[in-house]
Amino acid sequence: MLALLLPQAPTMVHAGSTSAPHAGLMRADVAVASDIAVARALFERNLDAIRRRDREAYLTCYLRADTLARTGPEGPLLGYDSFAKENGDDWPDLFEGLDLQLVPIRPGLVYGTYRYRVRYGPREESGISERFFVKTGDATTGRGATGAAKGGADRSAAGWKIAVTTAFAAPPGTPPPPRALVGATLVDGTGAAPVPDAVVILRGGKIDCAGTRAQCPPSKGVDTLDLEGLWVTPGIVDAHVHFSQTGWADGRPDAIDVRDRYPYEEVEAGLRAHPERFLRAYLCSGVTAVFDVGGYSWTWDLRGRADADPLAPHVAAAGPLLSTLDFWLNLPAERQFIYLGSEADARTGVRYLASHGADAVKVWFIPVEERKFDDMAKAVMAAGEEARA
What we know:
Layout: H1 21-52, H2 55-60, E1 69-72, E2 75-78, H3 80-86, E3 94-106, E4 109-120, E5 123-135, H4 152-156, E6 160-169, E7 179-186, E8 195-203, E9 206-211, E10 223-226, E11 231-232, E12 236-241, H5 264-273, H6 276-284, E13 287-292, H7 301-307, E14 314-317, E15 321-323, E16 337-339, H8 343-355, E17 363-364, H9 373-388
Parallel strand pairs: 1-6, 7-10, 7-11, 12-13, 13-14, 15-16, 15-17
Antiparallel strand pairs: 1-2, 3-4, 4-5, 5-6, 7-8, 8-9
């Protein structure tokens, strides 16, 4: 399929040729640089059309031929007409194309990959996409191009088209592409004075460098985000949250019982099904990490879900609490309180938590008149010994 897209192979300079070999190599280098430049210009024009929701300019970027290839749900799809019919009406709310890597295949053909992030309403996806940029005889560039696209780079890209386009979702936990945050005032959390016009380099999902422009110069090719006039500060850690509670009486009928209007089972089912309400609220409040210090076992699952979601903070979770009180606030088939009825119960409970990778052991030491204080203390001590074992 791709063989149909390849231009004729370039003429090689043979040993007996009268052409100067160094001049030929220099011309080849210039041609390669030119191809990469126009492929990049076409890529930027394609992204610009998406952001402006310009269907005509968007479709003009693609090869108008039966050999236009793209990925489909069951394999490759061919043809411009079906592509045009399916695109240009449903525009994303956000589209980012970052970390573009271009490789010249031969004169007139460039292969590229980039990392994408796209959002439609509350649904966001990210992954890697491929492009083949091919030089054709079509000099059409489309209308409505703005900014640099109207300049020489766009005119030199006339005749270049996207001939192959693919998109593959990133596996959960894949770090975002490198990026440089530039121009903001940085507070690094060490107590040092704020750094004006700072640079923060993000790489592999972590902060690689944070400081002055001299200390953290952005690498060539890394996408930059201008934050002039803004501040960059350390994220806040909320070290005491409960995803199994709502913050109101419907999540704590032991305090105020409103179950006749808000059945507890339904409240808990809603919390389990839609944790994103709280996760996004935390980020919007500057909280980048939270510690759930006791709740139902499903709170453990939030850790992996949050790590794979750029719109969620980091989550640590203790899971069910160990309690000296055989508390009734549970569900028919789920407990959020493990009763410390004896030292043996304590050790069994800790082993259960450890088997699920609990980030901590939460003990609810509630004095109970019916039990001897020393017996409860021994059970709590046994839990501590088992947790440290």
